[in-house]
TrEMBL record:
Protein name stated in the entry: small monomeric GTPase
Lineage: Eukaryota, Metazoa, Chordata, Craniata, Vertebrata
Subcellular localization(s) per the UniProt record: Membrane
Gene Ontology molecular-function annotations: G protein activity; GTP binding
Annotated stretches, region: Disordered: 77-110
EC number: 3.6.5.2
Source organism: Patagioenas fasciata monilis
InterPro entries listed in its UniProt record: P-loop_NTPase, Small_GTPase, Small_GTPase_Rab
Family assignment from sequence similarity: Belongs to the small GTPase superfamily. Rab family.
Length: 110
């Protein structure tokens, strides 16, 4: 295991520890308990994954995304500004606007 990797990430970077190829138990080089212990030492979540069997793929990416969003929530709220209710005039104006080409930059705060 690369214990040094967690030391090189800048402060504020969200991290999780992932053990891959969980579907190949016979080739395991690191015990699950070792992975859990290392994750605890660094204050990270731990997931064992397998792309072959789709084990914890979605869950690990979802958790990392949640951590990033939590860490940057205030920054994101500042970019969005205060919530505004759409007005009838604004909706009608939007309907009149051409859709544009594929090259037109689009912004969405969904």
């Amino acid at each position: 295991m690369r214990r040094r990797a967690a030391h090189y990430a800048p402060d504020g970077v969200q991290k999780i520890l992932i053990g891959n190829k969980a579907d190949e138990e016979h080739k395991r080089q690191v015990a699950r308990e070792q992975g859990l212990q290392l994750a605890r030492e660094y204050g990270m979540d731990f997931y064992e994954t397998s792309a072959c069997s789709n084990l914890n793929i979605k869950e690990s990416f979802t958790r990392l995304t949640e951590l990033v969003l939590q860490a940057h929530r205030k920054e994101l709220e500042g970019l969005r500004g205060p919530p505004r209710a759409p007005t009838l005039a604004g909706l009608e104006e939007d309907e009149q606007q051409p859709l544009g080409s594929e090259d037109t930059p689009k912004s969405c705060w969904c």
